[in-house]
Every structure is written in structure tokens, then in C-alpha cells.
Amino acid sequence: MAAILAPLGRLLDSDLFYSFRRSPVTVVSALVALVCLVGAGLAPWLAPHDPFDLASLNLIDAFKPPAWMAEGDATYPLGTDDQGRDLLSAIMYGARISLLVGICAVLFSTLLGVGIGLAAGYLGGTVDGLLMRIADIQLTFPSILIALLVDGVVRAALPQEVHEHIALFVVIFAIGISAWPQFARTVRSSTLVERNKEYVLAARVIGLSRPHIMLTHVLPNVLGPVLVIATLNLGNAIISEATLSFLGVGVPPTQPSLGTLIRIGNDFLGSGEWWITIFPGAALVAMVLSVNLLGDWLRDALNPKLR
Amino acid sequence: MAAFILSRILQAIPVMLVVAFISFAMFTYVGDPVAIMLGQDFTEAQRAALVSSLGLDQPFFVQFARFIGQAVQGEFGLSYRLSRPVAELIAERAPATLELAFCAAGIALVVGVAMGVYTGLYRNSWLSRALLTFSLVGVSLPPFLIGILLILIFSVWLGWLPSFGRGEVVQLGWWSTGFLTWSGLKALVLPSITLGLFQLTLIMRLVRAEMLEVLRTDYIKFARARGLSNRAVHFGHALKNTLVPVITIAGLQLGGIIAFAIVTETVFQWPGMGLLFIQSVSVADIPVMAAYLLLIALVFVSINLAVDLLYYAVDPRLRVGRGRGH
Prior knowledge:
The structure holds two protein chains of two kinds. Chain A is mainly alpha-helical.
């Protein structure tokens, strides 16, 4: 028991936790993020209905407004969509897909960006020039455009049946590849500083290989800012995924994310069924905003200059 | 000056070549144009004849060079989906997107600078605080949600403005404009606000930060000491010196406006190039995608070039520094 409590006590005592507790905005956004995470992650167990169970769907229940409105039904707290699916459950399942895609895309761009940045910074010369030139070119285009193009090209290149199976991976790949230059630039600049330090020289003197020095000695020392960029990028990745799905080129309709739900709801906006699109939208905003605020806090808390 | 422009143009060429190469690779390796054009029944001789008439038996670089030659002349073949020349399709859709982007950029620039100057000068007034809070919303809401909210409020609930399309357009030669009819103007309002809101908040925050910075400098104090009017100090001295970064960011954001037009056009079913592109992506209409890709790249490269030149024209320090350097 003490073994578990000791690190917890240290955490509660730390500067990081102090700055966390001091900022009410951060605490609130952490709570919202936690609710989103739990609601999305445990959707199959927590959701009141299973939106994918076709047998339980009943068209009579379609277009029910939220429970607090006159025609609402208490079994459907946030109302139902055009097929009679419970909106709350659909949002929970949708947030699961959105989060999954977002997190995987950020992991992918982190791996790619850190690898490229490390190689560019440590190897220098032509490799550096070439890689950073590519990053510069990519940065002149908005990342959503890159993601759209990558998604479009892959979609065109693969036969329809194959694409449907791996659509989720295609979206992750497209969003991931659109965000790597930011990671690469940061890691490169800190690698340039680290590589001339004495411990790297010492490692070279004792004859360690370049990949070994890069991965076990330089890498741990350049990872600090990466965490912050990754958190801030998670919000962007979730928005990118929602945008792609809203445009109808993101995740497949069989696995609807929040963006897909918003797109479906958008068709019924004109006829007054606003809840079908507004609630998934609100969930998206809550998720993205809380992640971004946490990222902002993390950036400030880890920056020694601001303490 | 000439050397500066030349070096910028030389830097832009590889970018265009890379993009052209991607477009070309899409044409060549994605899908099989020969199979699409031949249809079901064909003989081997017909196939060979078509392959050689399309130049597909030529070496790779010859094909690439030919592709570039055709692209420069705006020749991208037929759209798979609509069976019409791509150049024609894009020319038809371009006015809608350009008018939308123009309005969005105009709103962002005029309102953004005005709000930025106001919040910079009166930083503690309640209106400034309200505007800053509002700008946070503008930054954190994804553009398509802003569009949906505007539609819900102003079209569905209030019924003031149309929720889709361009309204009535007037043909001026090949250019179709929505500026000349009342319904066309009404249709422009919501999409341009949606498209321009992000840029508006960005410009506002930038102008505000720069104004706060500049108002603290000695030459502003000196201008006040000379007894110049508030107006002359604020606009003639302060605002003028904030414009260099504003031009850069605003110029670069213009490209963002063209790119995000894809999203806005989808929300409002605006018949522009972005909607055409999205419809092409979902059915893998390669010729349209390739042409749009090249066009967007050209727009971005030109904007970057123009911003660099403008920067050079606005900031005399750059010219002096370079003059000494060489």
C-alpha cells in the first residue's frame, strides 16, 4: 500500500500539481476531458443503448427531441436521429472513434516527426537540408488540405472494397502525415543544441554507433517539448478527423465519428431537428477545447521561464 | 530587387515541380485511363493504338514533360465523373470560390483591423474584453460548426438569410457574379462570415498585440509631445507600424481561406471549386483532383511570392539591410 501511496504523494506535492490546482480553468477542462475519455472509452458498457444493434432500432422512435422538451422521451435523454438511434449513445460511440483516430494520428505524426527531426539535426548536411526543405514546403499548405489530398489519393489508388476495410487507417495516416513538420522542426532544433554537448562527444569517443547515440542518448533529452506539441496537436487531429468525416471522406459510415454524426444531422437542420447536429457538435467542441486548454497549461507549466 | 525576386521565383519552381509530379503520378499510376476509355469490348490492336496515341508507351520523362506542357496550357483531359473538360469545369466554378474568398478576406481584414485597433487602444473597456472572449470562440470552433450554427440561427430560426447556394447570379461574359443581385448578396453573407471568422480573430489578435507594443515606443511619446492629434498618432504612426506583420500573416492566411473554402462550400452547398473537389475526391475523379491540386499549389506559391515582395516594399529596413549586405 505504501508503495502505491508514495509516488502519489510525490505527485500531489509536485510543482506540476500545484500549478494545476491553482488554475480553475485547467481543473475544469481536466474534468471535462476525463468525462469525454471515460464516456468514449467505456461506451459499450456505459451507453444506454447500442446504436449499432439494428434489432433494437425502431423507426417510430425517429426524430424524438431531447427528454426535457414536450415530445421528448426519458429513455432518450438527448433525443434520437433519423433512424431512431439514441443520440447520447451515438455520441459516446462516435467520440470513441474520434478519440481513437485522433490519438493514433498524433502518435503516428510524433513518431514520424521525432524520427525525421532527430535524423536531420544529428546527421546534418544534405539530409538536414533535404528533410527541412520538405517540411518547409509542407508547412506552406494548411494541414487539412494535405490530409484531404492524401486521403483522396489513397482512396483513388485503392479498389473500393479494400478501401472500406482500411478506411480508418487511411484517415489516421492522412492526418498523421499532415502534422509531422512541427514535431520535426522542434526536435531538430533541440538536437542541434544537444549534439555538441559533452555527453554526446563522450559517447562518440567511446565508439558508440550513430543510431545508438541518437536513440539512447540524444532522444531522451529532446523529448520534453514533444509532449506539449503532441497534446496541442491532439485537438487539431480530432478537428481534422471531424472535418474530413463531415466532408464525407473520413471514417466509413459504418463506424460514425462525431464528424459523421454532424454531417448526418446537417441534413435535418432545415426541418428544425437541430439536436441531431448540435449535440455531437457540442461534444466535439467540449472535447477539443478541454484538450487544448490542458495543452496550454502543460506548455506554461513545463516552461521554466514562466515560473 | 531584381535578384531578390529572381531568387524567390527560383525557390517556387521546385515546389511547383513536386506538386506537378504528384499530380502526374496520380494520373499515371492511379486507375487505368486506357481501361476506362476503352470500355468493355476491344481488340489488342485497338488497345495498342490508344496507348500509343495517348503517349503511354513513351519513356517516363517524356510523359512527364508532356504532362507539364499540357498543364501549362490548362489541358487536363475529361472529368471521369462528368465527362466534360476539366478546364471548363474549373473555369465555371472559379468565380463562385473567388467571390466568396474575396468577401471573406475583406471582412477579415477590415473588421479584424478595426477590432484590433479598438482593443489595442482601449484595452480595459468591457467591449474589448467581450471581443477578446468572442475571438477565443472563433479560434476554437471548427469552421464547419460555425457555419452550421449560423445556418441554424439566421436561416432556420430567424429566416433572414438563405442557407445554401449562391442565389441569383448574373453572367458577365464567362464570369458569373452574385454581387449584382439582392439574393446573391444575401447568399454571400453567411458563407463569407464562416470562412473569414478564423482569419478575422487572428488579425484582430495580431493587430492588438502589435498596437500594444508600438504604443509603448518612444516615437509615439515623441509624436504626442509634438502635440499631434490622437488620430494622427493612432493611425498615422501606430497603426502604420503594425502593418508589416499584419500583411504577412493576412497574406499567408489568404491561402488558408482558399483551402478552407472546401469546408465552407460543403456546408453551404456553394457551387465553387472546393465543392467540385470534394465531389471528385469521393468518387476518385483523378483529372479534376490533379488539376485542382496544381491550381491550389499555384495559388499558394503566388501568394507567398506576393507576400515576400510586399514585405520588401513596406519595410524599408529590409531594403537598406540588403543594400549594405551586397
